[in-house]
Amino acid sequence: MLQYIKKNAILMVMSKNFLLISLICCVLALVGCKKERQTVGDEITENSSIVSVIEVNDPEISAGNEAFLKGDFQSAINYYESGLKQNRSIAYYNMGVSYYLDLNIAEAEKYFKLAVAEDPTFDEAIMNLVAVLAEQEKSVEAETYATRLVGTRKTARVFVDVANLAIKNGSSAKAAYYYEKALQLDAKSSFVLSNYANFLISIGELEKGQKILESLPEKDFTALYNLAYIAWMQGNTGTSYNYAMQAAEDPDDSEEGLNKLATLLHELKRYTHEAETLRKLILWSPKKDYRLRLVYSYMHAWELDKATDEINQFRREYPTDINAIVSLYNILIAQGKITDAGNFILAEFQKNPDDMLRYQVVRHKSLYDRDFKDAKALISVPQKTPLVELARVAYYTSIRELKTAAKILATIPESTDNDYYIYQSFLLFKDKKLNEATAVAGKIEPTKPEYFWYHLVFSWNLHKPESILELVHEYRANHITSVRVPMLRYYLNPVREDMEFASQFDGKGSDIATTLLYPFFIEPDDMYPFVALGYKFIRAEDDTAAIGELEYSIERSNAVAKHNEGLKKLLNFNYAGALADFREAEKVLNLDPFLQYNVGLIYFINGDTLLADRRFQQAIKLNKYFVPAYVGSGLSKLKSGLKDDAATMFEAAIANADEYAALNHETAVLPMIIKAKYLAMLAQERPDRVITTLAAETDREGFIDAIEIIADYLLQPQLSKLDPIRESSIYKMKDLVYLFDLSERPMQEVKELPFKNRNTIMSAKYIMAKRSRNFDETYLAPYLTERVVLTDLTNLSTLLRKRPEGLRYLQMLNQFDVAYPAQYKASFYYFMWTRDFINSEAAYATLERLSYTDKEMQYYLMLYFLINNDNKRLTPQVAQYNASYENDYKGILMDAMRNLEDRNVDGFFDQMELLLDIEPFVFNKMPVEIDIERF
Fold it and tell me: Whole-angstrom Cα distance, residue 910 to residue 562?
């Protein structure tokens, strides 16, 4: 259809334009005629393409003209025949006019030619002959006669007349010559300019033609249509539609003009207006093609009752028309009347075993009835016509012999039937050639259910939300209510946002805060002022925990020593030994915020975010000014997906640091509080806030200076900015710079260092895997017995789609620890991805036995129930999640998918619009792929 419009849109409209021009030229030409010739004024020829009959001093001619004015054309012709004795050229001319109005175009042409042969200078006869020839598409002959006028009637209109015919005959150079002559005579004429603009458009000079047409003070149907056509070609569908509707309101149209306007409205997907235009067109000529197009336009507009009325009326006149039979079948399918459609098409095929009907029956039995035995019998025939072969494609596609279907389809011309594109796009989709499948799907007739669903699924899997929203608009603008939902299958597409890594590095402020979050020694002498201050302010609230903290911190020095031994082990990455010492010290120091914080830090490093957060919260309860604990709690919540709660903790860290400074303005503020304050700002992803706040900071030390350098780098990344801290001895600062290098530099320029820090090694592996889609276990061998490492490696394998490696790490995890929740979360996600629902269910059951739940786990459950097509469990899980986390994009996403699974297309679109409004870039982290099984 698109190719057809581009080739013919302007030229076909101009043929109508020529006929109108001829009428005008004829009238003007009469001014120069011989005095004995005089046109007869009448209303009969007012809307005709030719001029009226001519009166001369002849009784027979006069009597014929009287009969002509009464509309008795046959009597008029009889009188004119008698007038041939005295006025042959006039009589022939008037007979031509009468035959034309009596709808006998061939005879009109004959007598106009006789008139011209009798009198070669009879310009009126020449002009009417040209008009009749042009109307019959005899443009070459018409141009031959029209050229005669150039010598006698050198007017701008005559030159335009001849130029238009030259265009129809494919002679752009000749047309340009005559347009130049016309413009020389009258460069301000709207008539000349409008036709010249049309000529420019026809040769591809769209912008020049558009400029001329837009400058016209009054625009006729042709100008408005061509402006609509240009806007459509330029992709400005809104402007195109506006011009098209103005053209539709112009009474000065024609059959060809209405035909082209209806075609353009179809391309603009304005199907209701297309139908209105086709109705006007049918008044001109009730052709079968126009009437069937009206049926299709109602189908496109999903006005199925009107489509049914039209096709039934059509079939009363043409009961055996194959196109009408197929149209009615498709209407029944669109209405969801699958059984009725099948019975109808089978009955028609039994009456007439036409190949098209055979194809429709095979397709219905294969696709809807799943009656493969009967379908196979119908294709087991000797003939190999394109439609029979297409029926075989339908059969083999339905039984999932896709290679056989593709092989047959390759032998069939695309023009066989529009369903060719359905199978071609489906086979490309199954072959993972999504872009090619989408291009082919664009050719599917929009009334087919596959058009809607292929575009939806392909756009979804290609992550094109704009295409989905366009489909939403089309769905609702056309009031589509009968779109049948195919059998869909959902697959997990592992994405980074779904996974919790104990060690990761994406270069964000929260990653930096995680890397630099540091442990604390308990220095009894140095900590007294801080503890006492905490006691002083908390005592006012009768917090007995503060009193206990004070007593235990002073009295239990042995426990402090044990704690500090554990801290040395922590700094040497011996996390198990450190945790054992801390638990020993905790028997006495259970109310010490330092110890609670350090235990939380070990849990955090090992990926136990829930346990970590409990310890950080305990430290905060013991002393509200223990700012590092707020940062630790915020980072733990962030890893668990609780962004709002994390933001609250980071802001509380900053507020309490400032409050402590205000209360302690006469003495130096503890460095730990200042450091934690700026880590909280980085975790907020606010490096600008760090820079602004540090401008007023007077109490500086190395860590603070380093934070300023890092914040500046985050604002404008440039690795050379990190040079001052590359060799810094500050806690993990070298590690941090190395991770930035690894993230930004070409990988071959960065040498991997054998860090002793397990977490830095894992973060480095994470970066390398993210950049190269690969990783190895170099430097990790000593840690392959640690559950946190194996869990991260499982997740990393899943993210990289490395199925054997992921399974191996899971097997290793099962040997070392059977009560580690993160292990089962990784296992759950891995088995969802591999569609191993038995092991998925086992991982889920284990997490339930461990009484483990968090936001991420609740999200995993929604994914699991969706992918496992378990709508019974999916619905309450979505409701529970959305009640707990209102307006969270993951909950809205799952609600959209649940609606799709429930066949609630309207509900799906409601949720998608909400989802894309809340999270416009959701498809950058889309974990669900959709597959089409069958309709």
Answer: 60
Q: Find the largest Cα–Cα distance for the chain.
A: 143
| 76: helix, strand or coil | helix
The three-state secondary structure class of 571 is helix
* pLDDT digit string, tens, across residues 698-725: 767 788 899 999 999 999 999 999 999 9
CA–CA dist 144, 246 (Å, integer): 36
Quote the CA–CA distance of 801 and 462 in Å, as a whole number. Answer: 18
Report d(CA 932, CA 427) in Å as an integer.
11
How far is Cα 760 from Cα 754, in angstroms, rounded to an integer? 10
Residue 18: the pLDDT is: 40
Residue 851 host element (H or E): none
pLDDT tens per residue, range 818-855 = 778 889 999 999 999 999 999 999 999 999 998 888 89
- Cβ atoms of 785 and 770 within 8 Å: the answer is no
Residue appearing with tokens 């219905």: 364
In Å, how far from its chain's centre is CA 454? 12
In the 8-state DSSP scheme, what is residue 218?
Answer: S
Task: Report how far residue 53's alpha carbon sits from residue 45's, in angstroms, rounded to the nearest whole number.
Answer: 9
- What tokens appear for 580 in the block? 């054992």
The amino acid occupying position 590 is N
How many whole angstroms separate alpha carbon 100 and alpha carbon 103?
A: 5
Among 631, 341, 620, 671, smallest CA distance to 482 is for 341
Q: Give the three-class secondary structure for 608.
A: coil
Distances (CA, A) of 723 to 506, 678, 728, 751, 925: 20, 21, 10, 17, 34
Rounded-to-integer distance, Cα 167 and Cα 159, Å: 12
| CA-CA-CA-CA torsion sign (894, 896, 897, 903) | positive
Q: Which of 11-15, 443-447, 586-590, 640-644 bottoms out in mean pLDDT, i.e. has the lowest?
A: 11-15
Q: What is the mean pLDDT of residues 466-472?
A: 88
What is the reported pTM? 0.71
Element (H, E) at 795: helix 787-799
Best mean pLDDT range from 125-134, 330-339, 425-434, 882-891: 425-434
Q: Two tokens at 886?
A: 């209102």
Point out which residues pair with 39 in neighbouring strands: 54
The count of other CB atoms within 10 Å of the CB of residue 642 is 20
User: Is residue 405 exposed (0-12), middle (13-18) or buried (19+ Cβ within 10 Å)?
Assistant: buried
Residue-wise pLDDT for 658-673, tens only, equals 998 888 765 666 788 8
For β-strands 38-39 and 928-934, DSSP reports them as: unpaired
Number of neighbouring beta carbons within 10 Å of residue 225: 27
CA gap 513, 681 in Å, rounded? 9
Q: Region of 854 please: left (phi>0), alpha (psi -120 to 50) or beta.
A: beta
Q: What is the DSSP track for 668-702? A: PPPHHHHHHHHHHHHHTT-HHHHHHHHTT--S--H
Q: What is the predicted pLDDT for the residue at 20?
A: 35
d(CA 456, CA 85): 76
Closest CA to 683 of 487, 928, 514: 514
